[in-house]
Each structure stands twice: as C-alpha cells, then as structure tokens.
Protein 1
Amino acid sequence: MNLLDWARNQWDRVAAVTLFVAGVLAVFLGWLGVSRSAYEAESLPYIVSGGFFGLLALGAGGVLWLSADLRDEWRKLDSIEQAWREQR
Amino acid sequence: MTAQLWERGSRLVLAAGWSVGLLVVFLSWWGTSGEATTDDQFRWLGLGVFGLILCLAVSAAWVFTGMRAVGVRIRDVVPRPSDVRRPVVEIRAVPDAVVDDVLVAAAGMRYYHRSSCPLAQGKAIRPAERAAHLREGRAGCGVCRPDQPVGVSAA
C-alpha cells in the first residue's frame, strides 16, 4: 500500500494532523502579531484571529482523531458481530 | 445492514454548530479589527468566546454520542460469559449396570446401598435381599437410592 492509498484510507487522521499543525501555526502567528503590536487595541484582532481560530483548528483536529478511533472500534465490532453470528 | 455510528441528527447538529460557531468567530474578528478602542473591542471579543464555546460544545456532544453508541454496541455484540455454550459434563454416581440391582450393606450400617455406591466402597459389605435389609432396620441410601429404578440417583 503506497502513501496515497494510506492517506485515502486514513483521511480523518491526515486531516486531524493537518488541523493540529494549522492550529499550532495560527496560535504562533497570533502570538507573533500580539507581540509586535504597539498598543492593546491593535493586538486584540490577533488574539481573535490567531488564538480563537487556532484553538478551533486544534479542537477540530482532536474531534477528527477521536472520531477516527471510534470508527475503528465500530468496524472491529462489525467483525466481532459477524464472527459471533457465524459461530452460532 | 449495519447501524451507523452517528445518526443523521448528530451530523446535522455538528455541521450546524460548527457553521454558526465559525461565523460568529469570524464576525468577532471582523468587529474587533474594526474598532479603535478596547472597550468596543471587548464586546466583539465576547461574541468570539461564545462562538468558540459553541464549536467546542457541539464537538464534545459529537464525541460523547459516538462513545455512547460504541458502548451500547459493545454490550449488544460482545458475548457475555453466560451466553457462551460449553459442553455439559455429566456425572454419574451410579453407572447403568445390572449389578446395581444387588443391594449391599455391612454389619452395623444404618443404610443399604447399590453395590456400586461410593459410600459402600472399601467396606466389608454383603449382598442381601431388600426385605432382609429392612428387617435389620436399615433404610435405603440417599445417594445411590437403591429403591429407585436403575440409573436414577441423587447426583
């Protein structure tokens, strides 16, 4: 299985990692903007754009990762149910 | 057909929650960057916090719904130990044999037994008719039940 097939199968985990990276980057850029602002009113938009959107990206990444885990568990339960039915 | 992990309602709540939340955060950013004083900016900032909480709340609801569905399915699918069929082990205290019709007892015993009864093994037993045992004041053994038809025992 090449990398592309793996990424297609694990699309939710790939998206989660991408969002993690984007979130960390957004928070970093927000911090950079705030640190370079001369006064408070100039820094608040950076807090919203960098901080809030960064947190949202991190949250979305976490949700995607947990959803992928739950889907894996669901598929395992599918196979257990099938095996159990065949045994009966 | 296999059940879905998340129902359509859960998907709709997640999509709607995130759409509204992102829109609210975007509005917050737009409003904050358009104001010159921090007093005015904080109102927009509060709106952004609301959007953030909304997104995180619907995400938590999504994950908990999935976890609950998996938990319910585990209880339905994974067999309980009591459901697993095991072969039944049959224990016979008295084997089916003609010799079981021979009733035995030793001197001083209060009960008479079938010759194969485990309680009669290793004792100085002598065969006798049921009437003879009864005359000597003995009763039938409660384990091998010599008064019952062959093959019926307490075990």
Protein 2
Amino acid sequence: MTIPSGHLLLLAAILFAIGVAGFLVRRNVIVVLMSIELMLNAANLSFIAGSRMHALATPNAAPDMQGPVFAIFVIVVAAVEAAVGLALVIAMYRHKRSVSLDGVHEMKG
Amino acid sequence: MATATVAGALGVVFARNPIASVLALLGCFFGLATIYLLAGFQFLAAAQILVYAGAIMVLFLFVIMLLNLGHAGGLPKLDRAIFVQRRSTLAIAIAAALLGAVAFGVGAMHEPAAVGAMPEHGLDAPASLAASLFGPYALPFEATSLLLLATAVAVLVLAKRTRTGGGGS
C-alpha cells in the first residue's frame, strides 16, 4: 500500500535493462534464454504497476482486470517460450556438442 | 525486496556456472513474487511461484543437468570468457539508455494519489479475474490453450532423436 507504483516501474526498467545486457553479452545459450525470462518478468511488473495505479486511483469503479489478465498471458507465453527454447537447445547440443553461441552461424546470410 | 530481486538478476548475468545462474534467477523470481504480494496482487504472486519457480526453473535445471553443463572441469577459467567482447559496449549503452529513458519518464510522471484502501482480497481477486478471463478475454484464453497444445507437439518433434536410416518414427 505504501509502495509508490512509480518505483515498481523503475524496478521493471532495471530488470529489463539487466535482461537486455545479459541477452546481448552472454555466450551460453541457456543464460540467454534466462535473460529473456527476466525481460518478460519486467514486462509483467510494469503491467502490474499500471493496473495498480489505475485501481488505487479509482477505488469505487468496477475492478479492472486488464493488467493481471495480461500478466497471466505473459506467464503462459514465457512458459511456452522456455519449453520451445530448451528443446532447441537440446537439439543444438546433439548437433554440435556445445551450448555456446560462438559456433552458430548457419542462419547468417 | 527490490534489492534482492536486482541482485538475483545481476547474478544471472554474471555467474559463470549455469546452475548458479538458475539459482540466482530463482531468487529473483521469489523476490518478484513478494513484490507482487506487497503490491496487492495475491493470485499473481502465487502463479509466479507455481509457474516460474516451480515449473520453468525446474525445466532449466533439468536441461542443464541432462546436458551435464554444470560439471566443474568445464567452467571457463577467465571471467571474460563468458562474454562476447565486442558486444559489451553496445549492450551496456542500450541498457543504460533504456534505464535512463524510463527513469526520466517516472520522474516526470504525476502519479494519481491513492484515494481508497486496498480491497480485502487484493487487486486481483480470483473471482473478478475469472470473470474477465471467461468474459471479454475468452477468445485469447482459448487461443492460449491452442498455443499450449502446439507447443507440446513442437517440443516433442524438436527433442525427438534424429532418425538414423529410413524407418518411420
């Protein structure tokens, strides 16, 4: 109740920035996937912050569930993305015996 | 709590061992769930712990152990060896720009004053959440079920061992 929603937005930005940095600089593809999860969580947190700001400013209106509903959809998509990504990692490991992104250039034009 | 969350997130990026990364991410998700709880979203906090900490992280750990990536001998000796050197400057610049933009926005934002007390069941009471999921959001909800089915099939196809020779699957 006492947390300002702006601080939640700021925390979301920090998490997203860390996720972007990790996504760009790490070589291990599993850590890259975890950075994506981090970014999805930051998006979730900003949905939450917006919904909370709206809900606390208009307490007598009917509850507006857009924020939580979209956060749930993001969680589902994150789970799906992790499953497909890890299946790709396993396929790549079988193919190359490595999870490093260094030797992956099949898609380069 | 926010400090713990950010520390977990930093641990993900800077840990050398992938298992340490997973554990740091786990800490980060628990911190986020606590923040959801403190912010008044009780159902989402529970969902965060169940789905992220319970399911996704187990999946990551399972894959790491399956591929035997956490063994001690295989760790890179140098801290620098885990990073792609030429992208580091770019990444830090992008991250700093994002952070600066949002910090500027939040600083300039006029947050509406909270006029009411927190409802007893939090801001995401399961009853109203279900009413919107099966009301206005029924179509995305059904699309999600289709997405999950497609994912299950896709993961089976991807993770199946490649066929040697001509036999059917």
Protein 3
Amino acid sequence: MKTVTKYPWERINPWLVEIPASAREDMRVPARIYVDDVLWERAIGDRTLEQLVNVATMPGITGWAYAMPDAHEGYGFPVGGVAAFRAEDGVISPGGVGYDINCGVRLLASEVSFGEVRHRLEPLMTDLARVVPSGAGKGGRLKFAGEDMDRVLADGCRYLAEIGMASPEDLERTEAEGSFRRADPAKVSDRARERGKGQLGTIGSGNHFLEIQRVERIFDPAAAEALGLYKGQIVILIHTGSRGLGHQVCTDYVRAMDEVMARHGIKLPDRELACAPFQSKEGQAYFGAMCAAANFAFANRQAITHAAREVFEKTFGEEGGLRLVYDVAHNMAKLEDHGDNGQIVVHRKGATRAFGPSNSETPDAYKEFGQPVLIPGSMGTASYVLVGTDDALERSFGSTCHGAGRAMSRTAAKKVKHGAQVRKELEDQGIVVRCAGLGELAEEAPHAYKDVDRVVDVVHNAGLARKVARLVPLGVIKG
Amino acid sequence: MSAPASHRFVDHTSEIGLQVRAATFGELLAEAARGLASLMLREVPAAVAGEAREIEVSSHDRESLLVDWLNEILYVAETGLWVPLEPEVLEVSDTRIRARARGVMVEISPSMVKAATFHGLEVVETAEGFSAEVILDV
C-alpha cells in the first residue's frame, strides 16, 4: 500500500482505488473511488477523500462508500458521492442529497438537421431565452400556488400531463415517470413553497443551463438507434433542479435532524452529515418532503420542455417536434431493491442512476440496452449519452458520474480568464451564448472543470455505463 | 483593543467559504451577514434605503444560530427581494439573536447562494474574540 494522502490506499484496477475500512477507526465500510491516475491526483488535491471517509462512518451504511471520477469536495458528502444505507436500520441524510434536490438532466431530440439550425441559431436562442428564464431568482411564466402547488408536489409530471403540458410518452421516458409516489406535500414547509413560488419553468443560476447541441459522434450505433439518436441531429440538453423550493426543504431538514441526532444516539465527524434513521418519524418526514421537491424538479424540467417545444414548433413546423429521450436525477436518495443487498436507501450526491437492461425500473423502450445516462459537460465542451449496465448494480449501487466535475474554485477560474474572454472564445467556436452576467460566465468556464472525455472514459472502462453518443454545443443559455 | 470585525472569502472547489472574525459573538453574526449580502448583491448597485426591519432567530447553540441566521437572511432576500445591509444587533445570546437592519430592495431575487451549511463549522472563541468559517452552497 502507498500513502500520499493521510489515508492508506490501494489501486484495485486501472479505474478503481480503495481506501480500507481500517484507514480510520470510525469507518464502518471501506471507500472506493473510480479514477484513473490523472483523476486520482485531482481527487487528493482537495477534501474529497476526507469527506468520503466521513460518509463511510454513517450508521447503516452497506458495501462501500463510493466516489465517481468527477468527484470533488462538497459540504458533508463529496460531490460525486454514492452511499447506500440499509432501509431497516440505516439512516437518511438531507446533506447526502444536497440543497438542489433532484438536480438532473433531460435530453430532447429533434428531427431538425444542423444545416437548418445553423442560420437561425441567433433568433432561436433569443426566443428560447425569452420563454425559459435563467439567472438567480428569475421568475417563470407559470404561477403555481395553493392547490396547484400541492398537485405539483404530489404528482410531478403526472399533474403536468393532466393539464396538457406532458404526454404519456414523456412520463414513460422520465426516471420514476417524473412522479415519486412517496411524496408527501404536507411535509414541505410554507417557507419552501414561498421560495419555489413562480420558479417552475426556470433554469436558475450556477452551473445550470439549457443547450442546443449537435450529435457529433456515435460510439454504439445499435444503442443510439434504440434511443433515436443519429450523427448530425440537433438535440436540447436541460440541466436544472428544484430551485428555491428544494434549497429550503434541505435547509429545513438539515436543521431538524441536527436537533434530533443526539436523541437517536448518532455521532458524526461533520454536522452537515446530519441524518436520522430512515424508519424514524424525522427520516420519513424528510423522505416525503424530498420526494415532493423531486417532483417539483421533474415538473420544472417538463415545463421548460413545454416552452422549448413551442419555440421549436413555431420555428421549424412539424419537424421541430421535440421528443424526450430521457430525464434523470443526479441529487437524490431513493429506496431501491438491490436483490441480495435488500432494500437500501441509495444516496446519489452528484451521481447519476445507471440501471442496466435487466432492471425493472429501466423503461420498456430501453430494455435492450439499459437506462439512458445523461452526462452534461462543462459549458462549451462536450456532453455524453451513455446507457447503464447490469454490472453497475454490484460495482456502484447502479450509479455513475454526473458531469465533468469542478477542478478549480470560482475565484481561481475568474483569475484565469475574464467573462468577456470566455464569451469571445465560445463565440469564436460558433457557440451562441445567452448569459445573465459575465461573472457567472467566468466562473463556469471550461477550464474550471475536469476533462469530461476522461471522466466518461473511466466510467465506460470501469463498466458503470457504456458510451453511446457525444454531443457538442451550438447555443448556451446560462443562469 | 480588538481588531474590527472582518470577513473574507476562501477557496473551495465548488462552493464558497466565508471566513469571519469579530470581537464578540454578536459582531460575528453581523459581519457574517455583511459578507453574505456582498455575495448576494455582486452585480447590483447597493444603496441603503427604506425603513429598518427586525430579524429574529432562535437556535440551539452558537453554530446552529450562525447557520440559521444566514439562512434566514437568504430566505428574506429571496422571497422579499430585500437584502439587509447594516445589521444592528439589539439582543444576542448563544441561542438567539434579534437584530434591526436597513437594506436594499432588489428587482431580481438574489438566489445565487442556496444555503449556509454546517460543514466543518466551529465558532471558535479565543482571548482575541470569535472566528468561524461557513461553507455556503452556491
């Protein structure tokens, strides 16, 4: 064993490193991080490993505490972390899901070609930016409140289908049909509702975006065909979550659990890991509220889809129809049946579910190849479509990476390049940018992130997901 | 004499660390609020205007009071389009703060900060005063 960090570690294979459970006396399970040598150097450069080891100390954790190749330090859990807790006697942790509950990604495929879009890109982006507000706190066109809000929280996309904003096919092609049945709107506070008011159908700030992209390369023709993707096709990738509503739900329950942990006899190395037994009153209340916030996020991405469809159909007529390929969450805790591992609560904090062909939750349309996995790159770089594998279930509780993963702080990113320079470089590549502020543009610049191609290669080679297609951006709407 | 209260932002790969120092716990809370406000208003001109408002928060220890206080300010700012700028602490203990602040109205909800977290948080008291570092989720 070599030690370059404060923990002993061992390379299991070219894509996987393990930190044994003996590395720190409070660890209950070993930790595993999917990285090649280059990404390993990144991972040991901040507090990622320490946070992962902290997760390995939590009550009821089973198997390994995992980090994905895009992992970096977060608060409590590392971003890119996966941990599973036994439903019977394990915990649920709001900090292990994060403040942006059900932050996720949705891919829409058009039948429009690059040639048709190229000359209309500027007005198209302007129209999209008008109907899909972005930026911190920007309000949307939809004013759900009172009973409407309750229905969104209870039923997510199923409610949007009732009011004509989602099709049955949309529901089939969204994780959990865009509607977690365990949602309990009564457990979502008035404050959370107030923060989420008017935010349905909006992108938000930070690393969230809507991009028009072109399918640049197909790796797996048969899987691509099953997903309805082909080279040169124009697609839209949407990355956003539950906005202020989710932030407040997490805030409310981190606080609530911080107060009751001692009563449950739970001691942790970091208070942000605040948790409660899944079966406890507090654990169940959070689970109900988190599922409701997740429904709000699914509905948010569906409302954005509805607006984008109006613009595309107006611009391109019938050809401009946008078909939902898939919608997948990457900040969630889910109750899942993992066979020999039984019922477990899988926390994915900046990690994407990646179920294979034989999983019952993989939609019928994708049973042959596995559930689509959508990996957004950083702004201006490539994004990927992959499919989940059956092996991922044993190797990472059916999870894979969620993006390129930050490599540089916001302050450091701004020192490297100013926003105006970032904008110019994107425009020189022919990418049309619509962004609220130049500061945000500098913070989210490609150089602030790890290399998405390398990250995706690790999960592909490690067998956590298989590459299907690579997408490159044409137009970006940033928060 | 203690040094005046101060704050600075420290690097974190994906979030922002807010490091605060002050002579008293009450001043630490007020200074943390100033730091948060400067983040929220980063591209908005800020001129204090209008009537002062009261903000009151109770919690169960110093760390949770600091987190709750900052999260209360985030909530008020995001839902009321109003960012408190010059908090004046009226009453403070380890578990409760009552403050009055004038502030600035904003047109767009300043929600770039999602929340103040407990990550690695410790309110440190020394002979020189109080210090803390809060990781803000952005």
Protein 4
Amino acid sequence: MTSRGRSRRAFIATATRAVLAASVAAPVLSACAGERRPPAPGLEPELNIYNWFDYIGPETVAGFEQEYGVRVTYDTYESNEEMLGKLMAGATGYDLVVPTGYQLPLLRERGLIARLDRSRLTNWGNLMPLFQSTPADPGGEHGVPFQWGITGIAYRADLLPSAPDSWGAFLDGFAAGKATMLDDGREVLGAMLRYRGHSLNSTDLAELAGARQDAIAAKAHLLAFMTLALKGQLASGDVAMAQCWNGDARQAQRENPDIAFALPREGSLIFNDYMVLLSDAPHPAAATAFLDYILRSDVGAAISEETGYGTPNRAAQERMRDPIPYPLPAELARLEYQHDLGSATELWDRIWTEVKASA
Amino acid sequence: MKGRRVPFAVSATAVLTYAFLHLPLVVLIAFSFNRSRFGVQWGGFTLDWFTRLASRPDILRALRLSLVVGVASTLLATVIGTVAALALSRHRRRVRRVAEALLYLPIVTPEIVAGVSLLVLFSWLGITLGITTIVIAHTAFSIPFVTVVVLARLEGTDRALEEAAMSLGADELSTFRRITLPLLLPGILAGALLAFTLSFDDFVTTFFVSGVGSTTLPLAVYSMVRKSVEPTINALSALLVIVTTVAVYFADRLARGSTRA
Amino acid sequence: MIAARRRFLRWVSRHEGSRGALLLGPGGAWLFAFFLLPILILLGYSFMPRGPYGGVESGFTLEHYRRFLDPLYLGILRRTVWLSFLCTIACLLLAFPTAYFIVRSGRRRNLLLFLAVLPFWTSSLVRTYAMIFLLRDSGLINRALMDLGLVHVPLRLLYTEGAVLAGLVYGALPFMILPIYASLEKLDPALLEAAEGLGARPWARFVRIVWPLTFPGVAVGSLLVFVPSLGSFVVPDLLGGARHMMIGNLIQNQFGPARNWPFGSAAAFAVMAFLMIAMLGVLRMTGGRAGTGDAR
C-alpha cells in the first residue's frame, strides 16, 4: 500500500474513532446534567414552566431549585395567543403557564386547567383582598395572580418634541419612522378601538372596520410591529415611541433613563396575569409547591422589582422600595380588561392579517 | 479548459458574489471579539463574549441538546441512508424510480410544510413534542442527503473487487464486511458529517416539533436574535459557523479524496 | 452460530428480489411515515372543520379553501411568489458568472468549490442574523456610509421589503451555484471553439450553445432557490419587522397564535399545489430543451 494510502487509512480510522467517541460522549454528557440534592418529600424531581419573556426575578427559579431540590425547565413565549396555540396542540408537558385573565374562563371551561389545592397554598393570604377573588377567577380557585400591568406608550423624552398622550400619535406620524406597535392583534386593534371611543372588546363590524382602517393608516408610519425587541431598541434610540407594557418600559428605563411611559387619554387595557396549573401537568405536586413559593413576600417582591409590573401581593408590596401603585379610581375608569372574543376570534384574526399584509 | 480569458465582467461578478456570500459572516465573527457592546465601533479585542456564553446555563443546555440530537439523528440517518443507497445501486428496476422519488421528495418541499405536517402527525398520534420528535424529524430530512452521498461513492467504486472476492469463495456477508464497507467508508463518513451539519443547523423543522425544554442551539439563537443585537449572539453564531466549517471541511476531504481512489 | 449465518446467507441469496425491498425498507418506511404520511394527514386536515381548540373535528368542509381564495390571502401568495421569483432571478444573475468562474479557475477549483459549498451548510438563522447586523440603522453599512460622508442620516435598510429580498437571496444563492456549476462542467469546450471558428459572436455562442446545455442545471438551481424562498418565514419576520407578510408567516401564524390548523393546512396545500403546477411547467420546458441539447 502506498504511503498516501496508509495515511488515508489512518485518517479514516481516526475519524471513525472520533465519531464513535462523540456518539458515546454525548449521551453521557446529557446524563450528567449536574448533581442536585433529592427533591423535598412528596415532590416530583422536575418541573416545567412556560412563562412570558422577562417575567420573573433573576433568582426566582434558581432559588426554588435550591430550596426544593426540583429541576426546573423554564421556557418563554411572547403572547397569549402563542402560548394558547401551543397548549391547543395537545399534551405539551408543561405544568405551569401564565395566561392573562380573560383566558381563564376559556381554559376552565375546556378543562385545561386544574383546580388549585388551596390547602397547600399557605401564603395565599399574602394577596391583596381584591386579587383573592376576581371576575376572571371567582373564588380564586384556578389561578394564582402573578403580576398586573397596563399597556401604554413608552417613548424617548429626549428624542421627541413633546410627550405623546393619545393613540392618535401613531396615526399622525408623530415619531414617524421610529414608532412601533406591539406585534399582537388584540393590542393594536384594541388601541385603535379605544382611540375612537369604543370598547377594546368590540365585536361590532362597523367599529372594527374603523379600527382596521386606522391600524392600516398607522402601519404606514411604523418602523415595525415589535414586542420582544422593544427594550433594546428603545434604549438604543432606534425606536422613539412604542406601544408598550408598563413593566417593559420600566425595565428599559434601567438601560436609558430618558425613557418615559404615558397612559393615553382615550384609555387602554389593564391586565392581570395568573399562573395556572395545567390539568395534564406531569408534576402537580412540584407545581403547587412553586405556586406557594411565588406567593411568598420576598419572592413576590423580587419578581416585581425585576419585571417592573404591579404585584398583587400585599406582603410583597410592603417590602418593595418603589412598588407600582394600583391604579386610582380615576385611572381605572380609563382602563379596560380584555374579554375572550368567542366566535369573533376569527374575525379579529382576519382583520389583523389584513393589517399585516397591507402595503 | 484552455482558451480565452474569462471576461472581466464575469470575473468581477464572481468575486463580488463570493464577497457577498462570505463577508457578512466574516464581519459577524469579527465583531464577536469586539469589546464594545453597542454599535460597530471597534473597542478592542476581547474573548469576554465567548466566556459569557459558557456561564449561561440555558445556552449550555441548548448546545448539549443540539449535540445529542445531532449525533442520534446522524447515526440513524447514516445507517438508513447507507442501506438505502446500497439498495438503489444494486437493484435497477422500476422500484428504483419510485424509491428515488420518495427519497428526493423532501428536497422539493418547503421546510415549513414538512415542519407543520410533522406537528400535525405527532399531535394526531398524541406524541408529546420533545427530544424524540426532533430526532425523528432530523433523521427524516437527513436520509436523502446521506443516500445521495453514499450512492455517489458507490457508483464510483469498482464492482470488480467484489466480484473477485466472491469468485475466490467469500460469501456475501464477508464480502460486504471486508471489501464493500471499507471502500464505502469515506462516503459514509462524509454523509454522516453532512447529516450532522444539517441537524446541528436546522431551525424551521425543529421550531415546529420542539416541546418542553427541547431548545436546540438554533432555537436559542432565534430567541436571542428576536430580542436584541449584541455580541453574545455574534459569539454564539461564530460557534455555529466554526462547527459547520470544520464538519464540511472534513466531509469535503473525505468525499473528494475518495473519488481519487 | 456458523450454521445460523449459513442459513441466513442461503435465505438472502434465494430472495434476491425481496432483499432489495429489505434494504430499501428502513429508508422508505421512515420517509413514508415521517414525510409522506404527515403530508397526507395535513391534506386531510385541510378539509375538516375547525375544532374549538383550533385543531380539527370530524367532518368535511371546503370552507378553508374557499376562505383562502379571498383576495387577501391570494394577495399574500402573489406577493410571496413575486419575491421568490425576484430572488431566483437575482441568484441566477449572480450564480451563473460565479459557476463559470469556478469552471475556468484551474488549480484553485477545489478551494473555490469548497467556498461555494460552505454557506450552503451554514445555519440559515445565522446568515439572517448577519444581514440584520449589517443592515440596521446602527449597523455596519450605515456606519460605513456615514463615515464616508455619503449620507448624514442612517438609511432605512432594515425592516423593508428590500431587506427581505436581500435576506432571501443571501440564503438561497449557494443552492444556485452548485447545479449550474455541475452543468457547466460537463460542457465540452470544443463546441464553443467550433462555434467561434464558424464566426459566431460571444452573445450568440452563449444563447445558442451555453444556455441550452446548462438549462437543466439552471432548472434544478431555480427549483432549489424558489422552493425554500416560497416557504420562508424567518427572513420576512426578522428582516421585515413583522410587517411584510409572506405566505410562510401566514401558515406559521395559523399553527401558532391564530390557532386555526385546518386553515393553515389549506394554505400549506395551496402553496404545494402552486409548486406542483410551477414544476410541471418547468419540467415541460426542460424536457423540450434537454431534447435540443442532446441533439449534438
């Protein structure tokens, strides 16, 4: 055999050995996922949480893992619809998800969420009375209130001539080329409905047609529909005015203090998010333990301080340096909760597609 | 090919095309060493962004998962694809046409259609999305590639060697083990490397069939890219590109070296 | 052990025909189960009514296809087809000279081929991110233009339809280079020399000889570019700022937030149907041209 043939054989032999070694190593690597103390008695060793992006304290999950010896898998989503879409696909393997209030009746009716075992939620009393039983979850049986927030306009005070105070700012090209709205049909169309003085839960064809027109008109001035990338873009100044949630605005303010937040005078939406236990959750005991964990005042405070949203937890609020106060009645009058649209969902989806597909 | 020189317009376009293909990635990788976080001003050389990757458990998990899925789907696809290539090369009959059509169908189907159809299948069967479903999907789209590569290698080998061995008294199995397989090995390895690359870099199909805690590296990059532009993503992208380049380089050497056999 | 092996070999040699099926079995079965079958199920879904969860419930309906025939959705498909077509043309214009350059490059051919193949395998996501990095307001291109004094305000490059097209071309270009190269390589230079000797000018030589003979490569390359571009959703999402909706985005949306799987299936099948028709058209053209090419 020629020397070249010999070296080629050697090369192939080495390559084969490397491939075999890698195929053995990889499963081994995945098995040694890290030693952890055994889970607390009665709890499963794992927990799967599906939550909004940037919606938890920096040490919340790690703290739970340490205290309870449970390994947590934590995935995130950007919109209610995205999360719901995943849930509807069938057994997802998640234990806890965080829907907005208006979805709770829907999830309850379809048996997708389980009743809470309140006897195990020792910290339930930490919640403000108004959150212990809400219209979305009467009796507090199916969800643990997580955070609440409002949608408004986040803007760069240093880049705009004046503060925007109306949804109309998106229509008259106020920050043309540097304005964005959320990539969410209910938010965008809801804002346009409020602009015309209608309810953001409207299913009236005429009102929706008006909102559609306004949204398409606004789109012409928009840089993009943006949810996830907002904080970075506001901080860098690529975006000067954005439809945004108050917590995200607060988080962005940490990067750039010139960012301000305003509630439009026509009003906007207020939301309560709940952490719920899925009825097909593979780890119900660990999930319930986590629900009790986030009701603790220290954990709740850490979450709200990081996210910038309002906390429904009275005990947590008392610990916070600078908590978001619950809206005063005057403000509440301008704020509206979302409701499930029922059979009108398809209509709204079609209108949103029209807006997105318009030139 | 002798003859006149290549027209300048053609050469220029070619050079520009190569630049277009490679410069963006080179720039991307170059800026993963940039000290300054925002903008494109050069702030000094640093490996910080790479070390930061190592301290992010979510990224390490994604890397581990991508490797596991890559190796698993590669093994499966290589075995199945090689076997299929053997069948296709030896049995010239009508079946071959149909088989080839089936084998190459994935190439003319948009990946999104393949992805959602798998989602529908798994949902219909009630299979929870996760690592298993990803491996199944990756194997499916890798098989045609492995088959093509091994088939090319097969067609290039001299059947006479096998016939000589058999005429000397070796049975089918020995012939296969002692003669055919070693001859095929470079092609098989090349196919395996390409299958691994396909799996490691795949996004669209994985996007639809991943579930709890089954975030592969491309999926992790996607979330990061949607959120912001920062050097950490550059570093992660550089990692992906380097793995791909190494794998393709070796596959190329194996596939090419073998045709000179 | 040896006896078993001998028995196995006897069985194998006796069942020559079914051996082929056996070897092809795993591959065929895998692809049938995880490729063909899912697509058939998808087709079935497109004819079923939407269930309460966004899945399907039993029944038969044409409403999803009826809904797709609305100008809104057809318009999205039309725009997607147009963009993919532009992308294919752009790739063709860039790839043909490049492939020719490689063929004529002599000693450096292997290196050039490797460099052309490499982007083919690189993650499409990374390549899209590279585009974002270059095109954004504070990205490299604007930075360079401003430093050179050519512009004073950053050009709006990202989140435009042009950015989407650039992203599509960037992702698809390698797919066009290789097939054209394969075709060009087989071209016998003697033909061109003969034509020149007979007085044909460069353009005539190209149109009459090069183009017809490389047409199969062009056809394959066009297919490999057009198909992925048609189904693309990452590029319009990341580079288009979620405001340039392509059919891929529509489909992805239906399987996600919009929760309408049967409608998404119908849309997916509309795309497949369009592709089939387009491919048949191209095949018919290729069949004719290949005939001419063979008549040397």
